């Protein structure tokens, strides 16, 4: 499972669990909170009404039915009302008021339903008569949770003693719509918060994955090619990613590690290949040196001395090209000082190899003007020169090596026997050589590796194929 999916899954899981419990707590607290506020208001109302009813109760007017308090309460119940409360319309007055005497028997009921009944066992009345806070919740319809009625009582004092109880009752369904709206708003707000949190989680995850991928791309850009693999494309190392926090520390640690480890595998592969290439000329020089220590005819001594010189030159060329290739492989980009004409680079390369071509009896020709571009002139001339050296080695005496320029493409065509098809794809590997027309393997296999690296640094590619009259190598530079 990818890092981004793991982060998203973990974030949504944590956020979902937290949102579930938080929303559950909010919703669970709304109904009790509303009822607590409702009860608090009913306590105040009950005590005010109890104070207003005390005179009539003391005078016995409540029992006689000639009570101003009772008439006012009856008139309250029949008052028309049309109040807009925070978006809801209230068109009825929902308080029920009843008064009991000191024995708990109902003396007055605003709904005229319970007069004369004994309420002394009801919790609200019984507790209030004992001087405690009396309140209860009951249901008009058993089993129906929406039919609850809250009762809050207050003592009626006459001469400092409790002479009765006034109870205010209110159905809970009158505030249920406020509870439902509050729950709906909380749920909608919770869903919105969950959506915003999810968006933040996605953004943070994308940011994290983007920075991790930058680190991955940086790590891939600085790793060297496998030993023996041709440099077929330019992969310049990226700059150290500028990422914050621990990821930035990791990027800088990777850069320090790269600097410490850079070149270890490269040197190891080079040492193995170089050791293999040095064995033959060193053995030849040693053998010729041992023979020269003996008393030899002048002709043999001259032959062995020439072999020593020849193998020494081979070692020198090998070392020079190794150093050149090593410098190229450590570079990540070209140093172009301006626009360079391919025609000038080709002329410089031909002038540098003209003497050697003359010794081998090979003619060099140049056709086409070529394009100009932001290339490094010395490297382009070096690549063309190595192609010419390779073509001269494979061309017979009296033949021609042609350099052709067309746009941003450089082609070098020799007149040699070509290369076997199985070996074409390996041309450009370090130390890979094919037999010369005379059967020798005097080459180091580094010339085309240098050419390949030069083209790769410029962002181009090298194409090799057998033509009708020999091997054709094309360097295709970006226009």
UniProtKB/TrEMBL annotation:
Residues 273-479 form the Histidine kinase domain. One of its GO terms (molecular function) is phosphorelay sensor kinase activity. Pfam families: HATPase_c (PF02518), HisKA (PF00512). It catalyses: ATP + protein L-histidine = ADP + protein N-phospho-L-histidine. It is a multi-pass membrane protein. It is found in: Cell membrane. This is histidine kinase. It comes from Simplicispira hankyongi.
